[in-house]
Amino acid sequence: NLPMVFFVTPTKRRPEQKADLTRLGQTLAHIPNLFWILVEDAEGPSDMIRDLLDRLKMTQTSAHLAVSTPEKMRMNASDPNWKLPRGVEQRNAALEYLRTNHASWHRGAVYFGDDDNTYDWRLFDEIRKINRVGVWPVGIVGGLIVEAPIVASNGTVTGFTAKWKPERPFPIDMAAFAVNLSLIVENRDAGFSFDVPRGYQESHFLTSLKLSRNDLEPRADFCSKVYVWHTRTEKAQLSKKDLQRTLDPAQLS
Ligand code: UDP
Ligand code: MN
């Protein structure tokens, strides 16, 4: 009776998507009691991802959803990727899915794992250990080699090493925390929003769960270990023809 890990991944169609999801899927396929909620930023679920889940033998331990980012919030390929919030609609769809389908799992932790990050297997043990909300360091993010909560000798979180917008209520990355599923179920309006300043999605979400800094449980050996890195996949420079090919659903698988 290992607690469940609900791993939520918003994912956008782009030339590197299949490579990123193959690497992530081959990490997740080895983790016991993990349920992968993949939410495509698309009109409908793609055959490419359905076939990948099938090859990974994860069809029974995953949900494959799709919801498009609204037109006016969608970015162009040439936009810098921080221009607009990413994954808002998709993560909210995953939260609704959890409330509808998994509300009875009171020993479950929800984690937001983007498709291009790097995850050490040891992260999943830490996710399972949380009571309400766990936090840990993230490598290569916010202009730092490690961004981490600061933990006092009595084991409480007293601050953060963040250099970028340290004034945020929770100056941490999406990969830096997990929350108990019961919080998602109890706070039905909690979620992500387009109406939030850049860098404030994490703070907005944790606040919507009525959490405060005092609630943070430091994990990963009192936040001294790095088990997740905010790696980013370089955008491929492709000819128009190849770009068109990768965006055509029929060519994806
Ligand atoms: N994403 C999405 N729709 C978008 C852009 C991104 O669903 O329009 C997904 C993407 O696949 C990733 C997550 O949202 O899983 C975060 O995006 P990205 O990795 O580009 O952001 P960053 O690394 O800058 O946090
Ligand atoms: Mn990323």
TrEMBL record:
Quote a single Gene Ontology cellular component term.
Golgi membrane
User: What cofactor does this one take?
Assistant: Mn(2+)
Does the entry feature the keyword GTP-binding, yes or no?
no
**Which residue intervals make up region (Disordered)?**
240-253
- What one GO molecular function would you report for this record? metal ion binding
Per the record, the pathway is: Protein modification; protein glycosylation
User: Per the UniProt record, which EC number(s) apply here?
Assistant: 2.4.1.135
Q: Where is this site: Interaction with galactose moiety of substrate glycoprotein?
A: 147
- Where it mainly occurs, coarsely classed, is Golgi
Substrates-to-products reaction catalysed: 3-O-(beta-D-galactosyl-(1->3)-beta-D-galactosyl-(1->4)-beta-D-xylosyl)-L-seryl-[protein] + UDP-alpha-D-glucuronate = 3-O-(beta-D-GlcA-(1->3)-beta-D-Gal-(1->3)-beta-D-Gal-(1->4)-beta-D-Xyl)-L-seryl-[protein] + UDP + H(+)
What membrane topology does this protein have? Answer: Single-pass type II membrane protein
* Residues that bind Mn(2+): 116
Q: Which family does it belong to?
A: Belongs to the glycosyltransferase 43 family.
Designated name of the protein: Galactosylgalactosylxylosylprotein 3-beta-glucuronosyltransferase
Species the sequence originates in: Panagrellus redivivus (Microworm)
In terms of the whole protein, what range is present? 89 to 341 of 349
